[in-house]
Amino acid sequence: MKVRYLLACLFVVKHVIPQNAQEINGDILARELNKVADSVGWSFLQNEYNKLRYLETKPDGEKLVNEIAKKIGGRMEEVDIALKRLKEAVVEDQLSSANVPQDCCVDGEYQENVRFRTHVSEETFCYIRPSYVSGDDISFPTTKVLEAMKANLNVKHLQFQYIGLKTGLFINYPSTRLRDCDSYDPRFRPYFVSSTATIPRDVVVVLETSASMRGDKLFEAKHAALTVMETLGVKDRFGLVVFNDEANTLEGCYGNQVVPVTSTTKKSFRDFLNSQQAQKGADYDAALRKAFALLKGNSSVEAKDRDQILLFVSDGGDNSGTEGNPLEVIRDENEALNNNVVINTYGIGTGINSNEKQLLRNMAEQTLNNNSYGHVKRGQCEFITDLKTTSLRKVMGTYYKYDSLTKSTSPTYTQPYKDFFTNESVITGCLPFAFNGVFHGVVCADILISKLVAEILYLKHGEFIYAFIIDGEGRTLVHPLLPDPRDVIAQEQDINNINNFETSGDVSEVIDSMKKKIVALGSNLSLCIVMERNNTVSDIENFNQPISGDFVYHRWDLNRWPAPFCRHFSRYATQAKTTVKLTPDAFKEASLYTGVKETGVRVKQLKDYISGDITTNPGLKTSAIKSIRLTYPMEKLWMTTSKEEAPYLVWRYVMTEDGVQRQYPGVRLTDDYDHKLRPWYHRTIAQKTINVVSAPYEDSWGSGKIISLTRSILKGGTNTGGKVEAVIGTDFSIYFFNQMLEDIYPICADRTRYSCILIDNSGFLVMHPYYIETTSPIEGQIHITYLEGKISRSLIIKNIMYKQPCRDTGNKKEQFTYRVKLKGSDLGGIIDSEKGYELRPVPGSNVFLILKKRRSNDEDKCCDSEYYVSPSSIPCGTEECSCLCYKELSFNECRNEYNITSGFVPCSSQLPTLRECFRTSGCSWCKSDKNGNLVNGFCDLKEICPSQQCLKDVCSRKSCGPPKCKNPPCDDVSNVVIYASASGGAVVVVILIIIVVCIIRKKKTGGHDDTYLDATHEVTIFSKPTSDCIDYNTVPNCYTSTLSVTSEESVNTNAS
């Protein structure tokens, strides 16, 4: 044992293995990887799980979906109650206070708040008043309203609450520092406008760009037109006509129809509008005909039950000609639409004469129209003579009439959007309110989707189960292929039709059945759970008794560790114990444990219950307690045998499916760290019967370039049918790994003549001379096509490396990555003498070993792009060998749908990047010592400051802090480094949760799921294609039932 220890540590004695100088054998590396896996305890822990007895049960899909729907519906009812409480307080209060509250645009006395993830004061609200809104006669809410807002804080999935008034005043609670104070007007936001509509809107802005509009008039008119567009929601549509002597629209499909308001169409309208210049005359007739053509361009079925609004902006001077008459054009065109179109006209500037003013009034009144073709809807006519004192944006942005509004008694809801403070996805619920029967504004609250649908995000009933929610028009709220609502870096995605994500055979019938469950005008929400036919849930029957010390919680600041502290690279650690962290998966109600600040009382409750000192369960799942006890024997193994056999493995960890994380040496993890949301975990369970070796990356805990080796622990052993119980892993230095290769393959040590390269089964480099020779940090994974063009071309020609496409739905691209697979007679590897390399599989792993003979002029690349550029940024060329790249897909912007919907496999959604409550590495100035006593400031690890509050980040050490952790004996040997690492338009509708259980008839084919074989390290932004092993033509069996009505909903976009 001692001899092996010295070999691993000093790297001085080579393994002498007879081999042909022209050949390498992957079996040798496979044995070494197995040794590493066993040294970290894979065989030991797998054997422990093999001994267990399991109780197999078949999940009751209908019961499960009803339970989840009841919880989600219950949370929506809580929102309904909270908004009605706030509305009642506002109506009773009548905003009667003259006391001016905190200004949202001025710094106040705010405290950091975990829930709102910014500095706030829950003791008061603040206000915003746009610069163009007069401050005269403005009143504010009293404490009655404040108390209602405070009471609503008990609804844990609510975030900010606010009141938007028709005067333009905005009240926000809790008070915090906001931005864009001069221009923020609640009346122009979709959450406000959605409350003024009962059916979707089609809005066309007709904007004069004649020579007389030069200067401020055209600038203000453009700004006003864009404001109108921003008020519209996901069910609304928009059109734009600019006119002088001619009438023009955007080219293509924009020229003959109104279009949905999406991020793409909004950008197109902005670009088009910004390009317009003031010139020539003004032909009203041509402009009106073009505008009506847009409104007629959509089918009569689509136009039914929609408000149609035309907003006409001019500074006078119609030159339609002697034969032209705008009123006749309005009569003829609108009568063809049953007089459904409302026309608002806006005259701007001082140059409009009395005749021109009368014409604009008559156009709004539609004086030539006949009610026999349908009731004529009279519009508004406004004149703005001084654009400096009167805001055209305000006038046009409130094109809807307050007095005619339907007073909804149930909330309307927006489409998901990104919250400014949390960067997570939220929806906004609003209720309109009136004073003395007259509409006065709306009360609203933001709802954190991750808490609203927590049961879906933490659903665990086997490996082949997931859920999604859609509305009655097929728009998707939550789906595994959409960005996770917790993801703080994902972009908003308005391509969300369920047909983009559910592509199996007859799934359309299921979707149609979900959408047809309509109980009120508009659409419903439906919940669908998808599971494998004959799927079973396995519960461990054995229940080990508690053992003293089996649960040392990772929060050393809340739970005293029974061992002295030490510095382990950049971490505050203990080598005397393992530490345990629990993720929300470990709790029965995951939503109660997300984004919640942990306390010493809470940690003590967990510790006392797990140890058996108390009998009141603090919310833990029984399976999580079993996992804590099952993984505890790893502590002794890691501290003894593992440490002796593999001292180069500094970090060891096991992380279970039910949310238990055990780490050695004991260390504190970030509060939001969840292994099940990390790419390394998904890679491992996708290849659950083999050793999974990662591409190298920079360790955030200070140990340089490292590689991870992970392997799944399976129920019932290593057979492919066993479900994953946990993943065990370790990290080690890339320099150690390189030395190991040279030890077991002496030919690799001959660096002047040969290069030894390791790639994974997606073609990403695991080992390459570049990693050893470069002094630059590793910023992501590097594909073999970037450094080894000759080998890449050869592998592609031999069809060993082939492209794998998937559809990146949100970006409208088909992305291409690679797969590496040996087939037929090549299963044992290949030799290409012409190109000077051989490739061998490493059995029982995800990697291939390449021996390359060095030659002059050896540098050759398939890809000239920078190493870490996302494939979504590199267009594919015509070459067979290319970078990871994309091709544009044919997409209809005007209908917000793909022209071809079949024949594509959707890319998997990027795994979410969660918020970080604090950072735990590095040096900083502390305000307090570890006992919480305030001090003048000293410099040490951030972790030593209990509050994680620092005066500045760059400093010279003034306090030694804890002693450095004791390293293995070889630490004293010169020139030897031991490496450590971190683990790897708004329609009011009744909400109806429709229960759908989809049962996949056929199990996934093939042995491995390669969904997560692409560039999936935490720092990358590559999208991951779904597996080519999944059968997307499987026909599901589905069962539906309905749940009781809970509230009303309206769906919009960009509510912020």
From TrEMBL:
Domain VWFA intervals: 202-399
Presence of keyword Ribonucleoprotein: no
Annotated GO CC locations: voltage-gated calcium channel complex
Top-level taxonomic group: Eukaryota
Membrane-spanning intervals of the chain: 976-1000
Signal peptide interval: 1-21
Gene Ontology molecular function terms on file: voltage-gated calcium channel activity
Keywords for this protein: Membrane, Signal, Transmembrane, Transmembrane helix
Name by which UniProt lists this protein: VWFA domain-containing protein
Organism from which the protein derives: Magallana gigas
